[in-house]
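thread: overnight batch results

M.L. [08:02]
morning all. the overnight job finished for the chain we discussed friday. pasting input first so we're all looking at the same thing
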Amino acid sequence: MAQERKPDDEELGLEERESAYGLLQRATSLMRSGHNAQAAVVLERAARLELGKGSIVEALGRAYYNSGQHALAAEAFETLVGIDPSAPYGHFGLGQALKQLGRRAEARTHLRLACALDPDSRLYRQALARLP
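M.L. [08:03]
and the structure it wrote out:
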């Protein structure tokens, strides 16, 4: 019986060589180093490999937000809230991104939800208090 040959690294695309977890780890390291735009590119690949994975979508939203891509951050956090409506950080991130986009009423709603879902979070309460 002939054994099936596995393709080598050169034959595989980058996405097929790296797992979503490996990409997430690499992106986390990039974000810690302040390279948020590069992290977003890596996380976009991870998100394509693991559709609907909340941890990846959350990291992608953070990377977009921290690189000044607020519209993309809002989309990512909206996706996260769709995956897990009870995720306080999803509502917090969405509220912060919407605030940056000038959508204050919507931002207030999500920041209130974040506070309700995690009433002990000083970060969420302070963000809500800073919203005019």
